[in-house]
């Protein structure tokens, strides 16, 4: 005698196929959640890198163009410093940098930016971030002949802590003597 269709159960094959499909779906979901969790802090690292790059550029751009240039940038220095004189002058330290090219070659832990504000060793959430600065004259096709020495390019490279998996980011600005 046949049972009605409503009273029939699942066969063993149907149960095994259902378990396999659910197992594959759960594996994919857990892997996706793991990837999301692994990259959930990326925005925090990127925000800190952006803040540091901007802070360093603002500090550097607030300085005089050149040792021979007055604070307002005018009159144009004659002669301007040469590229060989980039970097700190004589006994200048980070705290006494007074012109843009003093920052050339600066490499420091980013906490150094905050040391003047916080005497207890800086702001620890920025510990592990490395900053390096390069300054050079910009010439070539960008500017008319004879004006190359009036524009310096400042490149600030911010490297997040090694354990973040993030790449270093470069920030660049031009500083003219006008």
Automatic annotation (TrEMBL):
Signal peptide: none annotated. Pfam families: N_methyl (PF07963). Keywords: Membrane, Transmembrane, Transmembrane helix. PROSITE patterns: PROKAR_NTER_METHYL. It comes from the Bacteria. InterPro entries: N_methyl_site, Pilin-like. The chain crosses the membrane at residues 12-34. This is Prepilin-type N-terminal cleavage/methylation domain-containing protein. It comes from Neptuniibacter pectenicola. The lineage of its organism: Bacteria, Pseudomonadati, Pseudomonadota, Gammaproteobacteria, Oceanospirillales.
């Amino acid at each position: 005698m046949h049972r009605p269709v409503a009273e029939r159960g699942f066969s063993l094959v149907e149960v095994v196929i259902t378990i396999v499909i659910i197992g594959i779906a759960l594996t994919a979901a857990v892997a996706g959640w793991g990837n999301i969790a692994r990259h959930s802090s990326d925005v925090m690292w990127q925000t800190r890198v952006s803040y540091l790059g901007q802070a360093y550029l603002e500090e550097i751009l607030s300085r005089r163009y050149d040792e021979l240039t007055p604070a307002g940038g005018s009159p144009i220095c004659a002669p301007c410093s040469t590229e060989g004189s980039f970097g700190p002058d004589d006994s200048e330290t980070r705290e006494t940098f007074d012109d843009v090219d003093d920052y050339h070659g600066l490499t420091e832990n980013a906490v150094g930016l905050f040391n003047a504000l916080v005497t207890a060793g800086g702001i620890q959430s920025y510990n592990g971030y490395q900053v390096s600065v390069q300054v050079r004259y910009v010439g070539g096709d960008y500017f008319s002949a004879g004006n190359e020495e009036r524009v310096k390019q400042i490149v600030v490279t911010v490297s997040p802590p090694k354990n973040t998996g993030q790449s270093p980011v470069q920030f660049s600005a031009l500083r003219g003597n006008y």
